Amino acid sequence: MATLRDIRRRINSVKSTQQITKAMKMVAAAKLRKAQDRLMNARPYVDRLDELLSHVTSKVDRNLHPLLEEREPRKICYVIVTADRGLCGSFNANVIRRAKSELDAQEPENKVISIAIGKKGFAHFSRRDYEILKNYEGIFEGADIKDAAEIAKIVEDLYRKKELDRVFLVYNEFKSVAVQNVMTQQLLPIPAKEPEIEKYRPADYFYEPSIGEILNEVCPRYLVVHIWRILLESFAAEQAARMVAMESATDNAEEMIYDLTLYYNKVRQAAITREIADIVGGAEALRG
Fold first, then answer.
1. What is the domain extent for residue 271?
2. Cα separation of 182 and 13, whole Å?
3. 199 and 266: one domain?
């Protein structure tokens, strides 16, 4: 049976851990609020750019621009977005599981490479001999659109040179504090989308400058803003997952403290009872 000192030490240890998890929850909540603000500001711009591009590309041959051109998928790249840190529930494991499933499902003759964003994904796949073209760490919290532009430039150049035929993004999409969905999204070739009929009714449009010039400007920007949005989505989802995980850990610590305190009181009561019994027994022996 554990001694009273052992139980007190255990209670103090759990209380210290609870203070840490409570502080981490508060930090994650503060970061989440900032991340949500940035994400909410970015989403309308991305949505409008998608609408513009879907409207323009619905009227043209997809071979008009290299980033729209469809090719047989023989050289494929996955941009895998995880976190730099753990203690966020199944956030990293879910992305890694999805990415591994996608990578392993490719035909053996296909060339498959990855770009790892986040320490956790890089650590997992680099230990298992997956080919990683480049990895990025420490870019989430102070993420700048320049970071997204750098990643976009790499995949754009490789796609233009026909060194890649498909580029996919694997990441956690932020839905709410309680819900983060793992997504696989095609980045290149830029997927065809039908424009919303109620917004763009059938009509002939004159484009100024030409459609080719518009595509030259909009297509590279599409890559940048989508990668930028996904960095923001992933960071917000990470903070939400960490906040929930730390809240659960704090609650579990509270239950452990309660149970240990009950156990401590029982052991203490048993010790007192034994001492009383010894005293009574000794007194009886003296009288006898």
1. 4-24+245-287
2. 36
3. no
Mapped onto helix, strand or coil, the DSSP state of residue 174 is strand
pLDDT of residue 56: 83
**13/61 same-domain check:** no
CA 176 to chain centre: 13
Residues with a known catalytic role: 88
Mean pLDDT, to the nearest integer, of 34-45? 93
Token match 């996904």: residue?
230
Question: Directed axis angle between helix 211-287 and helix 145-160, to 10°?
Answer: 120
pLDDT score of 57: 84
pTM: 0.87
Number of C-beta neighbours around residue 195 at 10 A:
19
Percent of the chain with pLDDT over 90: 73
> Are residues 182 and 48 part of one domain?
yes
Q: Are residues 133 and 254 in the same domain?
A: no
Percent of the chain with pLDDT over 70: 93
The enclosing H or E element of 280 equals helix 211-287
**Preceding peptide of 189 cis, ω within 30°:** yes
Query: Mean pLDDT across the stretch 7-16?
Result: 95
Residues 77, 147 within the same domain:
yes
